[in-house]
Design a protein that fits this description.
The protein has one domain. The protein is 42% helix and 19% strand. It has 12 helices and 8 strands.
């Protein structure tokens, strides 16, 4: 994104560009081919949803053309993982590559072991404990149940983002709030689940067979095949 005359502008493609991704199905196919894809432009040229879609479709009144709306569709389909996965910013990881991504990010720890070794906060454990009892929860309900309501714990967003980066939780779908008449209102809100609920515990933890350093190297070298102008170090910084 860039600022022009005080307005945010996306750095995407023109409508008539044959290379642009035109639908959520096309985007899912592209993510499955590349394996990983941040939502917004970063230090690797072309490595984002922003740069391969129309710059005019974002936040439009046409959800079928809006990549911001597509992320909701893709998350709900459960074929690709979506969340804060790239330096605390949003993006996608395919099912094929998620176990290696988990190996790299978790460094061989399941959450309980990480917590027992003093590598995870009590705030993060509160979130994991709540989600262990639900298939998924919208963020506002998760916040309350995990003790972050008014007068309670602080730092909910930070703990939530950290758990996504470590691949312990993921966005499972999006829901709107409901009023006392059970009517939907406002913007859609992300709902979260344990990542094992998305792809299965055995499948995700199969990545633990690969040393975390080897997993990271495989990810970087895979991406170098798609973005040969990038350096090893540039990709490493992007996937941290």
């Amino acid at each position: 994104m860039v600022t022009i005359d005080g307005k945010w502008m996306m750095e995407g493609l023109e409508y008539d560009d044959d290379k642009r991704i035109k639908s959520s199905d096309d985007l899912t196919e592209y993510i499955n081919k590349v394996g990983f894809l941040p939502l917004f432009k970063n230090n690797i040229t072309g490595f984002s949803v922003e740069e391969i879609t129309s710059k005019y479709g974002w936040w439009s009144d046409k959800p079928e053309e809006d990549p911001w709306a597509w992320r909701e569709v893709i998350a709900t389909e459960g074929i690709v993982a979506y969340g804060k996965l790239f330096s605390g910013k949003a993006g996608f990881v395919s099912k094929e590559w998620y176990p290696l991504f988990a190996s790299y990010r978790r460094d061989g720890y399941d959450f309980d072991s990480r917590y027992e070794d003093g590598l995870a906060s009590r705030k993060s454990k509160n979130i994991i404990d709540v989600l262990s009892n639900y298939e998924s929860l919208p963020s506002y309900e998760l916040k309350a149940l995990a003790g972050f309501s008014k007068g309670g714990e602080k730092g909910f967003d930070g703990a939530l983002n950290s758990l996504q980066m470590l691949t312990y939780i993921t966005v499972r779908d999006f829901r709107k709030k409901r009023n006392k008449k059970n009517e939907e209102y406002g913007w859609s809100v992300a709902s979260y689940s344990l990542s094992e609920n998305l792809f299965g515990e055995d499948y995700i933890r199969s990545g633990y067979k690969v040393d975390p350093k080897v997993a990271k190297d495989k990810i970087i070298r895979h991406l170098l095949g798609f973005y040969p102008d990038a350096t090893y170090d540039e990709i490493e910084r992007c996937i941290r």
